Amino acid sequence: MSMTPRVTIMIATHNRIVELCKTLEVCGALTGPECEILVVDDASSDGTFELVRKRFPEVDVVRNEVNRGSIASRNDILRRARGDYLVALDDDSRFVDADACERIVARMDAEPDLGIVSFQVIGPEHPKTLLPNGREIGEWHCSSFACCGAALRRSMLDRTGFFTEFFYHAYEEPDLALRAWDAGFRVLQWNEIVVYHEFSGLNRREQRTHRRHARNEACSVVMRYPWRWVLPAVVAKLCGQARYAAHRGWLLREPRVWGEFVWRLPQALASRRAVSSEAIKIAAGVNRARCVEAWDARRLGSLPWQSILRLPPTRSTRKLEPGAAAKSSTGLVGLTQSAHSVPDLDIN
Question: I need a labelling partner for 247 at 20 to 30 A (CA). Which of 9, 46, 51, 312 fits?
Fold first, then answer.
């Protein structure tokens, strides 16, 4: 293996040895640039560490003796990674096409302001994606990504920093994406690159994930928003999460979210590194108007909040070719949203 791999594939795992072996087999068959594969076994009890060392000697695997969470495990990989680009996969997600890394490197080499690329995720969690004509076509700028399928630029991380470790799990992706926009890098949903997510039910509980996401979203507001926006934004975020919890029948448990947020508030304040108001407007705007062109996305940062909030939410449709979107009343190019858009798997 080259001493300077172009790509580092990073995988954090916990007690999913069968799924992990499938993923590592696919990673080993990828074509294109030199890759290194770094795995952190987060205190598994199913023999993951020993089996990976024996069956996949080319994989650099380390073991946490105590469970530190997915975020700390990924940060450990980011500190050791040598690649120009970091490809994030879950232990149960894998590329559909063998040349995926080759195409990722070619595009990110050609577009140096492209900081994060989010891939299209298909699989049994969203059955429509497995049907004919069920996949997305096109691309748009976005405010988040999923660590089950994304690529990060190393030089961007040098400016933004890594994932927020005290989150433990959930909401680390939109928090990093906001910092990427603030640092002058773009975040793009590129549906041409496809990842199959087996989505094992092991270690996943939806209500627990909601709780972690909700508290960490509020912490991110404290850490990133200008002071004048912090209080109203925290209230709005927690109220929105409470409405979701009520819809799912979890409202009586929602005070635990508020308590965990208050418990972590000192850490959020100590970690505070506010971003520009322009970055926050971009992140909010691209959630409403799916901007294909880079200049459309960046232009959101100069609009008043009234214009951002008046952007019409994108309507559901199945497929759109790149560049087929029409101009909105604000002059922004929007790409409409699919009825089964790529999920952020750490969100609700």
Answer: 312
pLDDT for the residue numbered 340: 30
Cβ atoms < 10 Å from Cβ of 168: 17
CA distance 331 to 326: 9
pLDDT at 204: 65
Q: What are phi and psi of 347, to 5 degrees?
A: -110, 115
Domains plus CATH for the chain? 7-197 (3.90.550.10), 206-270 (no CATH)
The DSSP symbol for 59 reads S
Query: What are the DSSP E strand ranges found in 49-185?
Result: 60-64, 85-90, 93-95, 114-122, 139-141, 149-153
Strand 85-90 relative to strand 7-13, pairing: parallel
Percentages helix, strand, coil for the chain (3-state, rounded to 5) are: 45, 20, 35
Q: Name the residue type at position 275.
A: V
Burial classification of residue 65, based on how many CB atoms lie within 10 Å of its CB (0-12 exposed, 13-18 middle, 19 or more buried): exposed
How far apart, in Å, are the Cα atoms of 124 and each of 116, 199, 210? 25, 7, 20
Torsion of CA 181, 344, 286, 316, to 10 degrees: 170
Predicted confidence at residue 237, as pLDDT, reads 97
Those residues whose C-beta lies under 8 Å from the C-beta of residue 33, and which sit 6 or more positions away, are 5, 6, 7, 101, 102, 105
Low-confidence spans in the chain with pLDDT less than 50: 1, 315-348
pLDDT at site 174? 98
- The dihedral through the CA atoms of 92, 95, 98, 101 has a sign that is negative
Q: How many CB atoms are closer than 10 A to CB 263?
A: 10
Task: With beta carbons less than 8 A apart as the criterion, state whether 82 and 8 touch.
Answer: yes
**Strand 7-13, strand 114-122: pairing:** unpaired
Of 132, 139, 181, 163, nearest in space to 282 by CA: 181
Q: The pTM is what? A: 0.88
Residue-level pLDDT at 210: 96
Residues composing the chain = 348
- Phi-psi bin for 32: left (phi > 0), alpha (psi -120 to 50), beta? left
Q: What's the confidence (pLDDT) of residue 205?
A: 84
